[in-house]
Write a structure and sequence with these properties.
2 helices; 17-stranded mixed β-sheet; 2 domains; about 15% helix; alpha/beta
Amino acid sequence: MRVVLGWIALAIFLLGIGALLLGAVTGLLPADFFDEAANVWAVAVVLGGALGLFLVLSSGLSASPRPRPFIFDRGEARRGRLEIGAGSIDFNVSAHAPDMVEILAGGQAAGGHLPRFNADGGAAAIQFPTRPLPIFGVDLSEVTLTPNVPWAVEVRTSLGDLDIDLFHLIVPSVEVRGALGDIHLITPTAGVTAASLTTWLGDARIEVPTGVAVRINARPSKFAEIKVDEKRWPRLDDGSWVSPDYTTAPHRLTLNLKTTFGNISVS
């Protein structure tokens, strides 16, 4: 898991800094390498790094609740809504087989917390509860959705990687917001979709199926880069990328992108 590896790297970095400080105060480095305050800071940094590395390496052995499976019947639902508002989670979203007509959604929920389900008339909503932000480690949740009803998808996470495959789904609207972590989004192959993706720190990769006309609006910061396949979508004077047949195509995607640190690629 990339997030956990990042914490391991941080712990090793702290251990290295602490070793330098100890070297200065024990004479292994020149006496004036650091001032006398290094005595305190050296011990603090080494202990902090060692503790962090221990917690990371032992996190896989912790007694955290096992993922719990869930299945929601379709019933009379004619449309669905998926809401993921998590402090920390790795999440996979995809479609299940069309012949599973009686099942609205299924999967496994990390941390032992099952999603909430509400059906009101022809509308069904699935909401994953907000999870607290951990010091180390991110759990994985998975959900598969029926392709037999249209979906509204809203995903917001503070920490974790997202893999969202909407290829076989009808999704009129999708909103993805990630603070820390990478995002992989495959957009629907049919229908008209309005999508927005916002990242703060992390890379995002967006795949658009062949045959879908696209309009891409982007707002990158000066610390970020957005790469678009301009052979498929020429860039206009206003800075957007638009398919030549965007206004007439039956299958269309409007994509709004915003990033602060990191790269977004669309292909």
